[in-house]
Amino acid sequence: MQQTFKTAGVAGADADVTIVEGLIAGDPESFSRAMRRYNQRLFRVARGVLYDDAEAEDVVQETWLKAFRSIGRFERRSTFATWISRIALYEAWSRARGRTRRALTIRDLDPPPASDDPEAIAFGREVREHLGLCVDELPERYRLVYVLREIDGSSTEETATSLGISAPTVKVRLHRARAMLRRRLGRDAGETEARAYRFGGQRCDRTVAAVLGCLGVPPRAAPGC
To answer: How far apart are alpha carbons 119 and 95 in whole angstroms?
Structure first.
């Protein structure tokens, strides 16, 4: 009997099925579609472990190379997104092992704001940097849950599967992470952190081009991440 994808959304499941079938068939467009669909999630996961933008970007590239080369072993017992998220986590944890934590500055993660007011621009950067550093200072078990649930928008079940913990544990850790951030920030932390963890534009294009080049797959025009 054919296995089916476990997913919270039918549209997402259909898209993943199509992507995986294309990857198995070696369809060049599927490689680009997969990366542009999930680059941001993988970057957030890797960055949540490593605190370093450049190294997190390397993890994203290595994750895709490993995933594409082993796609035939994807058993569809979970969603494709969960499968590649776990590859990214293991790669990030492998790199983080034995490392000393480094301070992270987030001022360059976002494109400049639309405002022409230098004071407003400076304030926006300061706020994003402060919020991002507060998230980074969460203990890893809380930080990864917070990044996946609040910043990436993953469901409780998907977060639990990705991290190898139970759904109730996800809920408890998310509650504690929010409480820690509220105490630190003095207010709810929400949409601004998502901007700090953004992975798009040239960074996304660069990752797609690098992975396709390693695989010897010709680049295809595709919408951005």
So the answer is: 38
Rg (CA), the chain: 18
Residue with tokens 């930080």: 143
Q: 3-state SS of the chain?
A: CCCCCCCCCHHHHHHHHHHHHHHHHCCHHHHHHHHHHHHHHHHHHHHHHHCCHHHHHHHHHHHHHHHHHCHHHCCCCCCHHHHHHHHHHHHHHHHHCCCCCCCCCCCCCCCCCCCCCHHHHHHHHHHHHHHHHHHHCCCHHHHHHHHHHHHCCCCHHHHHHHHCCCHHHHHHHHHHHHHHHHHHHCCCCCHHHHHHCCCCHHHHHHHHHHHHHHHCCCCCCCCCC
For 130-185, write each residue's pLDDT tens digit: 666 788 888 999 999 998 888 888 899 999 998 989 999 999 999 999 888 888 77
Domain boundaries, the chain: 10-215
pLDDT tens profile 213-224: 888 877 666 666
What CA–CA distance (Å, rounded) separates 96 from 108? 22
Q: Could you tell me the fold of the domain covering 10-215? A: Rna Polymerase Sigma Factor; Chain: A (1.10.1740)
pLDDT (tens digit, 9 = 90+) per residue, 92-109?
988 887 565 444 333 333
